[in-house]
Amino acid sequence: MKARVFVTLKPGVLDPQGKAIQHSVELLGYGGIADIRQGKYFEIALESSLEQDEARETATRMAREVLSNPVIEDYRVEISE
Amino acid sequence: MKYGVIVFPGSNCDHDAYHVISKHVGQPVDFIWHRDTDLSSYDAIIIPGGFSYGDYLRAGALARFSPVMNSVKEFAARGRLVLGICNGFQILCEAGLLPGALIRNRGLHFICEHIRVRVETTETPFTNALEGGQVLKIPIAHAEGNYVCDDATLEELEREDRIVFRYCDAQGGITDEANPNGSRENIAGICNRERNVLGLMPHPERACEELLGSYDGRDIFRSLAASVAAQV
Question: How far off is chain B from A38, nearest CA to CA, in Å?
Fold first, then answer.
Protein backbone atom coordinates (compact mmCIF):
# COMPACT_ATOMS: atom_id res chain seq x y z
CA MET A 1 0.00 0.00 0.00
CA LYS A 2 1.20 3.48 -0.78
CA ALA A 3 0.40 6.88 0.66
CA ARG A 4 1.02 10.00 -1.35
CA VAL A 5 1.18 13.23 0.61
CA PHE A 6 1.10 16.63 -1.08
CA VAL A 7 2.14 19.62 1.01
CA THR A 8 1.40 23.04 -0.40
CA LEU A 9 1.74 26.58 0.89
CA LYS A 10 -1.52 28.05 2.10
CA PRO A 11 -3.06 30.61 -0.25
CA GLY A 12 -1.59 34.02 0.51
CA VAL A 13 1.71 32.74 1.92
CA LEU A 14 4.51 34.29 -0.12
CA ASP A 15 6.37 31.77 -2.32
CA PRO A 16 9.51 33.47 -3.64
CA GLN A 17 10.78 30.14 -5.02
CA GLY A 18 7.65 29.70 -7.10
CA LYS A 19 8.02 33.28 -8.33
CA ALA A 20 11.65 32.70 -9.33
CA ILE A 21 10.73 29.50 -11.18
CA GLN A 22 7.92 31.32 -12.98
CA HIS A 23 10.32 34.08 -13.98
CA SER A 24 12.84 31.56 -15.37
CA VAL A 25 10.19 29.63 -17.26
CA GLU A 26 8.89 32.83 -18.80
CA LEU A 27 12.42 33.77 -19.85
CA LEU A 28 12.52 30.45 -21.73
CA GLY A 29 9.53 31.62 -23.71
CA TYR A 30 6.65 29.78 -22.07
CA GLY A 31 3.58 32.01 -22.29
CA GLY A 32 0.23 32.13 -20.58
CA ILE A 33 1.50 31.29 -17.11
CA ALA A 34 -0.48 33.08 -14.41
CA ASP A 35 1.28 31.69 -11.34
CA ILE A 36 3.61 28.92 -10.13
CA ARG A 37 3.69 27.73 -6.54
CA GLN A 38 6.15 25.17 -5.29
CA GLY A 39 5.13 22.36 -2.94
CA LYS A 40 6.42 19.04 -1.61
CA TYR A 41 5.45 15.49 -2.48
CA PHE A 42 6.07 12.43 -0.30
CA GLU A 43 5.69 8.79 -1.26
CA ILE A 44 5.26 6.55 1.75
CA ALA A 45 5.30 2.78 1.39
CA LEU A 46 3.11 1.18 4.04
CA GLU A 47 2.99 -2.41 5.28
CA SER A 48 0.49 -4.38 3.23
CA SER A 49 -1.02 -5.71 6.45
CA LEU A 50 -2.57 -2.27 7.14
CA GLU A 51 -6.23 -1.74 6.43
CA GLN A 52 -6.94 1.16 4.08
CA ASP A 53 -8.52 3.15 6.93
CA GLU A 54 -5.49 2.61 9.17
CA ALA A 55 -3.16 3.59 6.35
CA ARG A 56 -5.08 6.78 5.73
CA GLU A 57 -5.16 7.57 9.45
CA THR A 58 -1.39 7.01 9.83
CA ALA A 59 -0.47 9.02 6.75
CA THR A 60 -2.81 11.86 7.68
CA ARG A 61 -1.40 12.09 11.18
CA MET A 62 2.12 12.09 9.78
CA ALA A 63 1.20 14.81 7.30
CA ARG A 64 -0.28 16.94 10.03
CA GLU A 65 2.39 16.44 12.70
CA VAL A 66 5.60 16.21 10.69
CA LEU A 67 5.40 16.70 6.95
CA SER A 68 3.55 20.02 7.04
CA ASN A 69 3.65 23.09 9.25
CA PRO A 70 -0.01 24.02 9.85
CA VAL A 71 0.93 27.70 10.23
CA ILE A 72 1.92 28.01 6.57
CA GLU A 73 1.00 24.79 4.78
CA ASP A 74 -1.94 22.58 3.78
CA TYR A 75 -1.72 18.87 3.00
CA ARG A 76 -3.62 16.29 0.98
CA VAL A 77 -3.35 12.52 1.40
CA GLU A 78 -4.02 9.86 -1.22
CA ILE A 79 -3.97 6.12 -0.52
CA SER A 80 -3.52 3.50 -3.22
CA GLU A 81 -2.94 -0.28 -3.33
CA MET B 1 24.72 29.57 37.43
CA LYS B 2 25.23 27.21 34.56
CA TYR B 3 24.34 27.64 30.91
CA GLY B 4 23.73 24.97 28.32
CA VAL B 5 24.15 25.30 24.57
CA ILE B 6 22.26 22.62 22.63
CA VAL B 7 24.11 21.02 19.75
CA PHE B 8 22.17 19.40 16.92
CA PRO B 9 23.79 17.79 13.91
CA GLY B 10 24.29 20.87 11.73
CA SER B 11 24.42 23.51 14.47
CA ASN B 12 27.27 25.89 13.66
CA CYS B 13 26.90 28.87 16.00
CA ASP B 14 27.18 26.73 19.11
CA HIS B 15 30.82 27.68 19.68
CA ASP B 16 30.03 31.40 19.31
CA ALA B 17 27.33 31.12 21.97
CA TYR B 18 29.66 29.11 24.22
CA HIS B 19 32.41 31.71 23.77
CA VAL B 20 30.14 34.60 24.69
CA ILE B 21 28.79 32.89 27.81
CA SER B 22 32.24 31.87 29.05
CA LYS B 23 34.12 35.02 28.06
CA HIS B 24 31.62 37.86 28.33
CA VAL B 25 29.04 36.52 30.76
CA GLY B 26 31.82 34.78 32.67
CA GLN B 27 29.76 31.76 33.69
CA PRO B 28 30.17 28.01 33.31
CA VAL B 29 28.66 26.61 30.14
CA ASP B 30 28.33 23.14 28.60
CA PHE B 31 27.54 21.86 25.16
CA ILE B 32 24.49 19.58 25.33
CA TRP B 33 24.23 16.96 22.59
CA HIS B 34 20.72 16.73 21.18
CA ARG B 35 20.32 13.14 22.38
CA ASP B 36 20.86 14.12 26.02
CA THR B 37 17.75 14.73 28.06
CA ASP B 38 18.92 15.77 31.52
CA LEU B 39 18.83 19.57 31.84
CA SER B 40 18.47 19.55 35.63
CA SER B 41 21.85 21.19 36.29
CA TYR B 42 21.23 24.18 33.99
CA ASP B 43 19.79 27.61 34.69
CA ALA B 44 19.45 28.80 31.10
CA ILE B 45 19.47 27.10 27.71
CA ILE B 46 20.60 28.53 24.38
CA ILE B 47 19.44 26.96 21.12
CA PRO B 48 22.08 28.22 18.70
CA GLY B 49 22.07 29.07 15.03
CA GLY B 50 23.06 26.84 12.17
CA PHE B 51 21.42 24.31 9.90
CA SER B 52 20.16 21.55 12.15
CA TYR B 53 19.53 18.43 10.06
CA GLY B 54 20.61 20.40 7.00
CA ASP B 55 17.33 22.33 7.09
CA TYR B 56 15.74 19.16 5.63
CA LEU B 57 11.94 19.26 5.31
CA ARG B 58 11.76 22.79 6.78
CA ALA B 59 14.26 24.81 8.79
CA GLY B 60 14.02 23.53 12.37
CA ALA B 61 11.39 20.90 11.55
CA LEU B 62 13.44 17.80 12.33
CA ALA B 63 15.36 19.23 15.29
CA ARG B 64 12.05 19.53 17.06
CA PHE B 65 11.93 15.71 17.30
CA SER B 66 15.35 15.37 18.92
CA PRO B 67 15.14 13.84 22.41
CA VAL B 68 16.46 17.01 24.07
CA MET B 69 13.49 19.05 22.87
CA ASN B 70 11.03 17.39 25.26
CA SER B 71 13.40 18.36 28.06
CA VAL B 72 13.59 21.92 26.70
CA LYS B 73 9.78 22.09 26.78
CA GLU B 74 9.71 20.95 30.41
CA PHE B 75 12.56 23.34 31.23
CA ALA B 76 10.57 26.23 29.71
CA ALA B 77 7.38 25.13 31.47
CA ARG B 78 9.24 25.45 34.78
CA GLY B 79 9.88 29.11 33.97
CA ARG B 80 13.57 28.68 33.13
CA LEU B 81 15.06 30.89 30.42
CA VAL B 82 15.40 29.65 26.85
CA LEU B 83 17.04 31.75 24.13
CA GLY B 84 16.72 30.64 20.51
CA ILE B 85 18.93 32.38 17.98
CA CYS B 86 18.31 32.13 14.22
CA ASN B 87 17.91 28.38 13.61
CA GLY B 88 17.08 28.24 17.33
CA PHE B 89 14.15 30.61 16.69
CA GLN B 90 13.01 28.42 13.79
CA ILE B 91 13.19 25.34 16.02
CA LEU B 92 11.20 27.04 18.81
CA CYS B 93 8.46 27.95 16.30
CA GLU B 94 8.37 24.42 14.86
CA ALA B 95 8.23 23.01 18.39
CA GLY B 96 5.26 25.20 19.23
CA LEU B 97 7.08 27.06 22.01
CA LEU B 98 6.65 30.26 20.01
CA PRO B 99 3.82 31.08 17.58
CA GLY B 100 4.16 31.66 13.83
CA ALA B 101 6.71 30.38 11.33
CA LEU B 102 9.81 31.53 9.44
CA ILE B 103 9.66 31.16 5.69
CA ARG B 104 11.99 31.91 2.77
CA ASN B 105 13.18 35.54 2.59
CA ARG B 106 11.05 37.54 0.20
CA GLY B 107 14.09 38.36 -1.97
CA LEU B 108 15.22 34.68 -2.05
CA HIS B 109 18.77 35.61 -1.06
CA PHE B 110 20.68 34.28 1.87
CA ILE B 111 21.35 37.55 3.70
CA CYS B 112 24.49 37.94 5.78
CA GLU B 113 24.97 41.51 6.97
CA HIS B 114 24.71 43.84 9.91
CA ILE B 115 21.18 45.18 10.28
CA ARG B 116 19.50 47.22 12.97
CA VAL B 117 16.76 46.21 15.31
CA ARG B 118 14.76 48.32 17.72
CA VAL B 119 14.07 47.13 21.24
CA GLU B 120 10.28 47.01 21.44
CA THR B 121 9.93 45.90 25.03
CA THR B 122 12.23 45.79 28.03
CA GLU B 123 9.74 43.68 29.94
CA THR B 124 11.58 40.43 29.27
CA PRO B 125 14.46 38.71 31.06
CA PHE B 126 16.46 39.13 27.86
CA THR B 127 16.02 42.87 27.37
CA ASN B 128 15.60 44.36 30.84
CA ALA B 129 19.11 45.86 30.78
CA LEU B 130 18.27 47.67 27.52
CA GLU B 131 16.24 50.79 26.90
CA GLY B 132 12.91 50.82 25.10
CA GLY B 133 13.42 52.12 21.55
CA GLN B 134 17.16 51.48 21.69
CA VAL B 135 18.61 50.61 18.28
CA LEU B 136 21.02 47.67 18.17
CA LYS B 137 23.40 46.85 15.34
CA ILE B 138 23.51 43.07 15.05
CA PRO B 139 24.23 40.75 12.12
CA ILE B 140 21.72 38.44 10.49
CA ALA B 141 22.66 35.36 8.46
CA HIS B 142 19.69 33.46 7.10
CA ALA B 143 17.68 32.43 4.07
CA GLU B 144 14.52 31.69 6.03
CA GLY B 145 13.89 34.57 8.38
CA ASN B 146 10.66 35.91 6.98
CA TYR B 147 8.33 35.82 9.99
CA VAL B 148 4.71 34.98 9.26
CA CYS B 149 1.71 34.51 11.49
CA ASP B 150 -2.06 34.88 11.18
CA ASP B 151 -3.94 38.04 12.13
CA ALA B 152 -5.13 36.64 15.46
CA THR B 153 -1.57 35.74 16.49
CA LEU B 154 -0.25 39.16 15.48
CA GLU B 155 -3.00 40.86 17.46
CA GLU B 156 -2.16 38.70 20.49
CA LEU B 157 1.58 39.40 20.19
CA GLU B 158 0.91 43.13 20.06
CA ARG B 159 -1.67 43.16 22.83
CA GLU B 160 0.58 41.14 25.15
CA ASP B 161 3.70 43.20 24.33
CA ARG B 162 5.51 40.11 23.04
CA ILE B 163 7.19 41.59 19.96
CA VAL B 164 10.69 42.06 21.39
CA PHE B 165 12.67 43.28 18.35
CA ARG B 166 11.73 44.83 15.01
CA TYR B 167 13.98 45.54 12.04
CA CYS B 168 14.51 49.29 11.77
CA ASP B 169 16.67 51.94 10.11
CA ALA B 170 19.60 53.66 11.81
CA GLN B 171 17.25 56.19 13.41
CA GLY B 172 14.92 53.50 14.73
CA GLY B 173 12.28 54.00 12.04
CA ILE B 174 10.25 50.90 11.24
CA THR B 175 10.17 51.01 7.44
CA ASP B 176 9.79 48.50 4.64
CA GLU B 177 13.27 49.44 3.36
CA ALA B 178 14.72 48.43 6.71
CA ASN B 179 12.97 45.06 6.59
CA PRO B 180 15.61 42.68 5.21
CA ASN B 181 13.49 39.59 4.66
CA GLY B 182 9.82 40.54 4.43
CA SER B 183 8.91 39.67 8.02
CA ARG B 184 5.39 40.63 9.01
CA GLU B 185 5.42 44.00 10.80
CA ASN B 186 9.25 43.93 10.66
CA ILE B 187 9.28 41.33 13.43
CA ALA B 188 12.81 40.13 14.28
CA GLY B 189 12.14 38.52 17.66
CA ILE B 190 9.25 37.48 19.90
CA CYS B 191 8.74 35.92 23.31
CA ASN B 192 6.19 33.48 24.67
CA ARG B 193 3.27 34.50 26.87
CA GLU B 194 5.22 33.67 30.05
CA ARG B 195 8.12 35.77 28.68
CA ASN B 196 10.82 33.22 29.52
CA VAL B 197 11.35 31.98 25.95
CA LEU B 198 12.80 34.37 23.36
CA GLY B 199 13.43 33.66 19.70
CA LEU B 200 15.20 36.08 17.37
CA MET B 201 16.72 35.88 13.91
CA PRO B 202 19.66 38.29 14.47
CA HIS B 203 22.83 36.90 16.06
CA PRO B 204 23.66 38.82 19.27
CA GLU B 205 26.44 36.30 19.98
CA ARG B 206 28.23 37.59 16.87
CA ALA B 207 28.00 41.17 18.13
CA CYS B 208 29.85 41.09 21.43
CA GLU B 209 33.29 42.32 20.44
CA GLU B 210 34.47 45.51 18.80
CA LEU B 211 36.63 43.49 16.42
CA LEU B 212 33.46 41.96 14.98
CA GLY B 213 31.98 45.33 14.07
CA SER B 214 29.55 45.71 16.94
CA TYR B 215 29.16 44.81 20.57
CA ASP B 216 25.49 45.70 20.87
CA GLY B 217 24.65 42.06 21.45
CA ARG B 218 26.36 42.13 24.83
CA ASP B 219 23.46 43.96 26.43
CA ILE B 220 21.14 41.08 25.60
CA PHE B 221 23.47 38.64 27.33
CA ARG B 222 23.88 41.08 30.22
CA SER B 223 20.11 41.11 30.65
CA LEU B 224 20.02 37.34 30.45
CA ALA B 225 22.82 36.97 33.01
CA ALA B 226 21.16 39.34 35.49
CA SER B 227 17.83 37.55 35.07
CA VAL B 228 19.40 34.13 35.57
CA ALA B 229 21.17 35.42 38.68
CA ALA B 230 17.86 36.75 40.03
CA GLN B 231 16.19 33.36 39.43
CA VAL B 232 18.82 31.25 41.13
Answer: 12
Count of other CB atoms within 10 angstroms of residue A17: 15
Number of Cβ pairs < 8 A linking chain A and chain B: 35
CATH code for the domain of A58: 3.30.1280.10
B108 touches chain A (CB under 8 A): yes
Contact residues on chain B for A14, CB-CB shorter than 8 A = 103-104, 106, 146, 148, 182
Number of domains in chain A: 1
Residue A65 structural domain: 2-80
Number of domains in chain B: 1
Q: B2 CA to chain A: closest CA distance, Å?
A: 33
8 A C-beta contact, residue A44 and residue A59: yes
Determine, for residues A66 and B103 on separate chains, whether the beta-carbon distance falls below 8 Å.
no
Query: Which residue on chain B is closest to A69 by alpha carbon?
Result: B94
**pTM value?**
0.95
Average pLDDT value for chain B? 97
Q: How far apart are CA A33 and CA B197, in angstroms?
A: 44
Q: Does B106 sit within 8 Å of A14, measured CB to CB?
A: yes
Q: SS3 string of chain A? A: CEEEEEEEECCCCCCHHHHHHHHHHHHCCCCCCCCCCCCEEEEEECCCCCCHHHHHHHHHHHHHHHHCCCCCEEEEEEEEC
Cβ distance B58 to A17 less than 8 Å, yes or no, reads no
Q: Dump pLDDT digits (tens) for A18-66.
A: 999 999 999 999 999 999 999 999 999 999 899 999 999 999 999 999 9
On whether any CB of chain A is under 8 Å from the CB of B100, the answer is yes
pLDDT digits (tens, 9 = 90+) for B135-176: 999 999 999 999 999 999 999 999 999 999 999 999 999 999
- pLDDT attached to residue A10: 96
Domain that holds residue B139: 3-231
Give the domain CATH number at B20.
3.40.50.880
